[in-house]
TrEMBL record:
UniProt record similarity statement: Belongs to the bacterial solute-binding protein 1 family.
Listed Pfam families: SBP_bac_1 (PF01547)
InterPro entries named in the record: Bact_solute-bd_prot1 (IPR050490), SBP (IPR006059)
Keywords annotated in UniProt: Signal, Transport
Record has Signal as a keyword: yes
Signal peptide (from-to): 1-29
Name of the protein this chain belongs to: ABC transporter substrate-binding protein
């Protein structure tokens, strides 16, 4: 299953986002609370794997990779196995295909797209989840997250990491200096951007060098403006990218992207900015940073931690503004799969499906788990705790990242498909019709219709 349809959960998550704004939007609210300590005893039993060597691959680097390594170290401690992290490149399907063709696949991989999971199953690369991991899934996960890790009714994956990709993080000092309040609507966002830029601080840091961030911009605007039903249809390519709803969304996005003074470094600077820098440059420089705000998911916290800014004080967050009647909430995530029929691979899936593993990474920040057994106290501050609680409150139903549902050739490949078309759009936001035509041509080819 490639998505879940959920107006009720959409509303619940949006309401929780409003709580984020109310509880963590200014003043002393949202300051860090003492992080939860480790559990008194392991809640999942793992086999001894003394002498066994495992490899794990994911498209993670920097702090994210370092934080996940702490999880692997605990697995080593409990089992006696030796685990090596092997960084993967996008698209991960191509990376894994090369490894498999060479007879050296990793034991476990974390796939960042639903489309990548489907492709891996179709290529017969992955093993079904074993009974121990399945028991953890049944105990700790909602039906919706289990179904996202299944293909054709068979459970193949464990959604270890989730994301709320409808958040805007902002520099509190820059907002205060400009006299700007967090906007609740798109119209208010554009007005705030105008005020910020006039004050001498560009409004937004856009990671245009990483095309996936641009797909997230589009998806949030489209979901709020066109609504959930059209979002689902476009995700399945049941309507074309030349549809008028896509034109409207691109035209709206151009209100922001089309103002050079709104973007840190202008369009050319944005296109040269990778995601980590888009965050760090927003939270350095006191009240005169390179930009006043940066859009992306809860994982932004990992990169904020590389600066001197404190989440809840210097770095605050508000929900992505409503373009239509409701504010959007887009979710994403990484699914762990076993590529070898080994005892060690299944044991690692079991561990990743347990709250024990998720709580280790939760304490590091910039991580949200869909595992409902995770202790909320494991999250290091009130902002991240509320984000996690909102995700769990959504239950079985939610809207999943559209590009992650698409075939990787369209929605998950650097320099191609949707990523490239939206980078070209960032360079020339006036070319709405041309962007639609390129998107539709690439989508038709990738979907085969």
């Amino acid at each position: 299953m490639r998505r879940r349809s959920a107006p009720a959960a959409w509303t619940a998550l949006a309401a929780a986002g409003a709580l984020l704004l109310a509880g963590c939007g200014g003043g002393g609210a949202g300051k860090s609370d003492p992080p939860g300590g480790p559990s008194a005893a392991p809640r999942v039993q793992l086999p001894r794997l003394d002498g066994e060597k495992l490899e794990v691959s994911a498209v993670w680097t920097g702090p994210e990779q370092a934080n996940f390594t702490k999880v692997l170290e605990e697995f080593e401690k409990r089992t006696g196995a030796s685990v090596a992290f092997v960084p993967a490149q996008d698209p991960i399907v191509t990376f894994l295909g090369t490894k498999i063709a060479g007879g050296q696949p990793p034991d476990v991989a974390l796939l960042p797209q639903v489309g990548a999971l489907t492709a891996a199953v179709q290529n017969k690369w992955v093993q079904p989840v074993g009974p121990e991991a399945k028991a953890q899934l049944d105990k700790n996960y909602s039906q919706g997250w289990k179904e996202l890790g299944a293909v054709g009714g068979t459970q193949y994956g464990v959604y270890y990491k989730a994301a709320n990709k409808s958040l805007v993080w902002y520099n509190a000092k820059a907002f205060e200096a400009a006299g700007v309040q967090p906007p609740k609507t798109w119209k208010e966002l554009i007005a705030a951007a105008d005020t910020l830029s006039a004050s001498g601080t560009p409004a937004v840091s856009v990671a245009g060098a990483d095309g996936w961030t641009l797909t997230d911009w589009f998806e949030n605007v489209y979901l709020s403006q066109a609504g959930p039903e059209k979002y689902d249809k476009l995700a399945k390519h049941e309507i074309k990218w030349t549809d008028d709803s896509v034109r409207q969304a691109l035209t709206t996005l151009a209100e922001l992207f089309g103002r050079k003074d709104f973007l840190a470094g202008g369009p050319s600077g944005a296109l040269a900015t990778e995601f980590p820098k888009s965050v760090t440059q927003t939270f350095t420089g006191g009240d005169r940073p390179a930009a006043a705000m940066v859009f992306e998911g809860d994982f932004v916290a990992v990169n904020i931690a590389q600066t001197e800014a404190k989440i809840g004080e210097d770095a605050l967050v508000f929900p992505f503004p409503a373009v239509g009647a409701k504010a959007p909430v887009v979710s994403g995530g990484d699914v762990a799969v076993a590529l070898k029929p080994s005892k060690g691979a299944q044991a690692l899936l079991t561990f990743l499906a347990s709250p024990d593993a998720a709580e280790i990474q939760a304490r590091q920040g910039g991580f949200v788990s869909p595992n409902k057994a995770v202790d909320p106290a494991a999250y290091p501050n009130a902002i991240q705790r509320r984000i996690a609680e909102a995700l769990i409150a959504a239950g079985d139903d939610f809207r999943f990242d559209m590009s992650d549902q698409a075939p990787a050739a369209f929605g998950g490949t650097p320099g191609a498909g949707e990523w490239k078309a939206l980078q070209d759009f960032l360079a020339n936001p006036s070319d709405v019709a041309g962007t639609q035509a390129r998107l539709e041509a690439d989508a038709a080819k990738a979907y085969g219709n």
